[in-house]
Each structure stands twice: as C-alpha cells, then as structure tokens.
C-alpha cells in the first residue's frame, strides 16, 4: 500500500440537519492538515465539504479542490487553494481518486453516495486498493448493512468490505487510514 500523502474527504454540499455533522467536517479538515496531509475535495464552498476544506486551509494545510465548471455557480469555487476545473462529474471523481491515497467518507447526500459507489466499484474491479474509512456510525450504519446484504447474496466479493472501516469518530477513522506522522 502506498504511503499516505493526500486524503480525499467525501461529504455533503449541504450541512444536513445535525449540528454535529458540521463539527465533524471541521475536525476532519483540521486534523488532516495538522497531520501534514493534503486534503482533496470537490472544490466548492458549500456545505460540509466547504467546512472541511476551510478548516484544513485555516490550519495551514494544503488543499486541492476539483470542480466541474458547471457546478461553480451552484457550489461556489473555493479560493486560495489549488483548484482544478474539469468538464464533468466523471472527470472530477477520477481526478479525486488519482490524487488521493486514502478516503474519509463523512455524511452526505446522493453526490457523496455516488462518489463512494464509484470508488467501491473500482475497488471491486481491482482498479483501486486505497484505504477507506466511513465516519459516524449512526449515519453510515445502514450503508454498512446494505454492503453486508450485497455480500451475503453474493453480488460482490467479501474482500470488498474487508478493506473498509466504519468508525465512530475522526480520530478512529484517521487511525484506520494509518495517518500518523507524514514522511
């Protein structure tokens, strides 16, 4: 497994209805930056994604945003970071995966789910084998159950879920990704 240098954070472009989600996003961004890792995200200023990126930047971290040009009027474009503009959502997902060595999945909506499923499909096909940690068991618990269901009915290999970690908090998730001192 490659040494971690960049951590992609998948999360909502909305904040959701639980104040704890905003605190989780802020902590994720701050801790990734404090550990010396680059944070990779979807490039916009909206929602939990914007909160995580802002926290990483405010903590002195390096941040890479990847955003399709057509989403800039909707999500805004984060300024003061490395921002790569792409044409499609597919190009965004591919670049975020290529630029990341590990993944944190925080609460989010259909876009977050699409990103997660794209990554899991690539893992299932043997195209990727990077660590993935889902943060907030209350939110991701039903998703974990769904994946177990798909495995139980033999629609995917059990090895897919063996490489995933479902964690209650950021500290546990970062430990699952083996984030310690960079270098």
The gist of it:
It is built from eight helices and seven strands; from the N terminus they run βαβαβαβαβαβααβα.
Task: Characterize the structure shown.
α1 (19-34) links the parallel β1 (6-10) and β2. The model has no long low-confidence stretch (mean pLDDT 92). The chain contains eight helices and seven strands, in the order βαβαβαβαβαβααβα. Helix content is 46%, strand content 17%. It has a seven-stranded parallel sheet with strand order 4-3-2-1-5-6-7, with helices on both faces. The chain has 183 residues and is of the alpha/beta class. It is globular. α1 (19-34) packs parallel to α2.
List strands and helices in order, with pairings:
Elements: E1 6-10, H1 19-34, E2 38-41, H2 47-58, E3 63-68, H3 72-75, E4 82-86, H4 89-98, E5 102-105, H5 110-124, E6 132-135, H6 137-152, H7 159-162, E7 164-167, H8 170-176
Parallel strand pairs: 1-2, 1-5, 2-3, 3-4, 5-6, 6-7
Helix pairs in contact: 1-2
Listing every helix as H and every strand as E from the N terminus to the C terminus, the arrangement reads EHEHEHEHEHEHHEH
Q: Poorly predicted ranges (pLDDT <50, ≥5 residues)?
A: none
Question: Which strand order do you get reading across the main beta sheet?
Answer: 4-3-2-1-5-6-7
Distance between the termini: 14 Å
Helix percent reads 40-55%
CA-based shape: globular
Largest sheet: 7 strands, parallel
Total of DSSP H or I helical runs spanning 4+ residues:
8
Rg over alpha carbons:
15 Å
Category from helices, strands and their pairing: alpha/beta
- Strand content bin: 15-25%
What's the overall average pLDDT, rounded?
Answer: 92
Number of beta-strand segments: 7
């Amino acid at each position: 497994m490659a040494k971690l240098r960049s951590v992609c954070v998948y999360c909502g472009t909305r904040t959701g209805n639980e104040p704890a989600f905003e605190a989780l996003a802020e902590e994720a961004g701050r801790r990734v930056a404090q550990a010396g890792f680059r944070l990779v995200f979807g490039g916009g200023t909206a929602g939990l994604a914007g909160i995580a990126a802002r926290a990483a930047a405010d903590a002195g971290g390096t941040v890479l945003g990847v955003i399709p040009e057509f989403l800039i009027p909707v999500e805004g474009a984060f300024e003061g970071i490395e921002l790569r503009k792409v044409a499609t959502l597919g190009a965004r997902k591919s670049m975020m995966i290529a630029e990341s060595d590990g993944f944190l999945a925080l609460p989010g909506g259909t876009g977050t789910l699409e990103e997660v499923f794209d990554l899991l499909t690539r893992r299932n096909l043997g195209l990727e084998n990077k660590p993935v940690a889902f943060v907030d068991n209350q939110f991701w618990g039903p998703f974990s159950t769904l994946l177990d269901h798909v495995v139980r009915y033999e629609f995917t290999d059990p090895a897919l879920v063996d490489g995933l970690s479902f964690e209650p908090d950021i500290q546990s998730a970062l430990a699952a990704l083996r984030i310690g001192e960079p270098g």
